[in-house]
């Protein structure tokens, strides 16, 4: 039997609909892909740069940072791309020849010119922050300190960057910016205040305390839930929408070089015929020290003995226990007018949370291979004691490539770090493993410089910047996909439910 004409035509018509849909679908997909490709075409990278000079007591380092300009308020986007160690000593050593302070920076600044694209040099800010070495020079001779600062300022102005100033930062700033740096790099700010705090299993990591051991001063900074009893030790921050009450203290004269001077100066009365037997150096080690140089530091001024010989022949005896006793003697734990003190009458709340220890803490612990994994306090003491007991000849043979200044001081430095942390701040075997010894975090050096730059360039907002849940690309892509889907649905409905045109043409 012949198929009725109408049914045949209906079938033809359905075929046309299917054909139309078949043609529309790939068209939709092509449109979608085109939109996605156009939308996600990588934008030209707009990178910004910043330079910070850390003019420390022992040396100056030049750090270069970069970040994508469109993301500068996000956390963790700034990273260190270069660092340059200035040859010679810190700028405070040029008190008698200030022009040399500026000249010393030339090489590293020339290197910065090679690293930063020429087009962007004019808009790249340069900051110089001087720390404890310059604080001590200012105490000794304010004019000399001024001259050194103008010398470095003139040098930095001569470069095609946007020079923003050279100044001596306070110990409080040094502690605060060190704390900001490590928590920024560890991602602790955003974890505490980001949207994922609303997730059911969210456990805030909290912030990490910062322990910085320099050559002339040392800083301890940590968030404290307890009342901070002295105003000068109290910091308050609002970062990414969260408030932080932070304790900080900078001990001038308790950096490792000044602490060594204190230890030696304390022992001068025991010297006979200019020979000073020092348990903090390996046995067989000898060092000639001028007493006028020793006493030139304001840290030592009240330990000066008028009858001291002009030179001291310091001879190592390599005895950890005796060294520890000498080192403990430079901490005064007898006076405290607060509920709790660290040492020298300085208020310190109970230690809280984890700590990142950097600068000389890291250099020394890394040398002693004590930075990886959980190592008990007893094991650390044992390692330092073993190192101190090694004869100097043996130490030199074992580490022929390490600079003598550094190598000769690891026994003292190891003992000093242990004493400062345990006897000074009150760490013990229970909370010892709350300390992590950090050199770099994600390729950036742990130190105050990054925090300083973040603050001066206003890159840490007080409130959490509004960020929509979807990125712009995802949003546009989804919008395009749903629009196409909607058009297809409308088209299908229209083709399915309208009276087929072909039937209208008078067949029925
Ligand atoms: N072993 C070792 N010691 C180092 C190294 N670099 C610096 N030091 C020493 O470690 C101590 C601290 O160094 P820094 O953190 O650079 O100190 P600084 O910034 O110059 O001093 P402050 O102004 O007090 O912060 C000083 O005694 C330096 O001589 C290193 O690479 N290895
Ligand atoms: Ca430092």
Largest sheet: 6 strands, mixed
What would the CATH topology of the largest domain be? Nucleotidyltransferase, domain 5
Number of strands: 16
> What class would the helix/strand composition place it in?
alpha/beta
CATH architecture descriptor name of the largest domain: 2-Layer Sandwich
Binding site for ATP: 215-219
InterPro entries: GDA1_CD39_NTPase (IPR000407)
GO molecular function: apyrase activity; ATP binding; GDP phosphatase activity; ribonucleoside triphosphate phosphatase activity; UDP phosphatase activity
EC number: 3.6.1.5
Q: Main attributes?
A:
single chain, 508 residues, alpha/beta, Nucleotidyltransferase, domain 5, 4 domains, 6-stranded mixed beta sheet, 5-stranded mixed beta sheet, 19 helices, 19% strand, elongated, binds guanosine-5'-triphosphate, binds calcium ion
Provide an overview of this structure.
The structure is a single chain. With 508 residues, this protein is an alpha/beta fold. The chain has 4 domains: 5-42 and 469-504, no CATH class; 47-168, 2-Layer Sandwich (Nucleotidyltransferase, domain 5); 179-183 and 201-252 and 329-389 and 416-445, Nucleotidyltransferase, domain 5 (2-Layer Sandwich), CATH 3.30.420.150; 255-321 and 390-415, no CATH class. It is 42% helix and 19% strand. The protein is built from 19 helices and 16 strands. It has helices at 5-40, 99-103, 106-115, 118-121, 132-140, 142-157, 171-185, 188-193, 256-267, 291-295, 320-328, 360-367, 377-388, 392-398, 404-408, 410-424, 448-456, 472-497, 501-504; strands at 47-55, 60-68, 79-85, 125-130, 162-168, 209-213, 217-223, 234-239, 242-252, 275-278, 286-290, 311-316, 355-359, 435-437, 440-441, 444-445. A 6-stranded mixed β-sheet has the order 8-9-7-6-13-14. A 5-stranded mixed β-sheet has the order 3-2-1-4-5, sandwiched between helices. β6 (209-213) and β7 (217-223) form a beta hairpin. The longest helix has 36 residues, at 5-40. 37% of the residues are buried. The mean pLDDT is 90. It is a multi-pass membrane protein. Homodimer; disulfide-linked. InterPro entries: GDA1_CD39_NTPase. It is found in: Membrane, Caveola; Membrane. Belongs to the GDA1/CD39 NTPase family.
């Amino acid at each position: 039997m012949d198929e009725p004409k109408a049914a045949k035509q209906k079938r033809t018509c359905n075929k046309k609909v299917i054909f139309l849909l078949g043609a529309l679908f790939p068209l939709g997909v092509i449109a979608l892909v085109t939109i996605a490709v156009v939308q996600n075409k990588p934008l030209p990278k707009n990178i910004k740069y910043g330079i910070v000079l850390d003019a420390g007591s022992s040396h100056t380092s030049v750090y270069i940072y970069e970040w994508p300009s469109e993301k500068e308020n996000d956390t963790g986007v700034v990273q260190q791309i270069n660092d340059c160690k200035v040859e010679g000593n810190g700028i405070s050593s040029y008190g008698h020849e200030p022009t040399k302070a500026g000249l010393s920076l030339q090489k590293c600044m020339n290197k910065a010119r090679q690293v930063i694209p020429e087009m962007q040099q004019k808009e790249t800010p340069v900051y110089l922050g001087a720390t404890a070495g310059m604080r001590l020079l200012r105490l000794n001779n304010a004019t000399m300190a001024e001259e050194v600062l103008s010398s470095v300022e003139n040098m930095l102005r001569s470069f095609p960057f946007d020079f923003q100033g050279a100044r001596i930062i306070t110990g409080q700033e040094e502690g605060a910016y060190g704390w900001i740096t490590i928590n920024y790099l560890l991602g602790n700010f955003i974890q505490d205040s980001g949207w994922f705090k609303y997730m059911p299993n969210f456990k805030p990591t909290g912030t990490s305390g910062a322990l910085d051991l320099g050559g002339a001063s040392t800083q301890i900074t940590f968030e404290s839930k307890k009342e901070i009893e002295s105003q000068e030790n109290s910091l308050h921050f609002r970062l990414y929408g969260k408030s932080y009450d932070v304790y900080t203290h900078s001990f001038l004269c308790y950096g490792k070089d000044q602490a060594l001077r204190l230890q030696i100066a304390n022992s001068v009365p025991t010297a006979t015929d200019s020979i000073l037997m020092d348990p903090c150096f390996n046995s067989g080690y000898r060092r000639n020290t001028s007493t006028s140089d020793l006493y030139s530091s304001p840290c030592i001024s009240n330990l000066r003995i008028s009858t001291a010989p002009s030179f001291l022949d310091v001879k190592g005896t390599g005895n950890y226990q005796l060294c520890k006793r000498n080192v403990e003697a430079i901490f005064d734990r007898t006076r405290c007018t607060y509920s709790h003190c660290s040492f020298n009458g300085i208020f310190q709340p109970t230690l809280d949370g984890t700590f990142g220890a950097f600068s000389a803490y890291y250099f020394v612990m890394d040398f002693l291979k004590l930075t990886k994994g959980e190592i008990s306090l007893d094991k650390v003491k044992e390692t330092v004691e073993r190192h101190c007991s090694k004869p100097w000849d043996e130490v030199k043979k074992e580490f022929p490539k390490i600079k003598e200044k550094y190598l000769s001081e690891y026994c003292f430095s190891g003992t000093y770090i242990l004493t400062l942390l345990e006897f000074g701040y009150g760490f013990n075997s229970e909370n010892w493993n709350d300390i992590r010894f950090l050199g770099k975090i994600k390729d950036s050096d742990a130190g105050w410089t990054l925090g300083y730059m973040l603050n001066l360039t206003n890159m840490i907002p007080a409130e959490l910047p509004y960020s929509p849940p979807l990125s712009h690309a995802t949003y546009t892509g989804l919008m395009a996909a749903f629009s196409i889907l909607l058009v297809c649905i409308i088209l299908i409905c229209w083709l399915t439910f309208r009276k087929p045109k072909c039937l209208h043409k008078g067949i029925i």
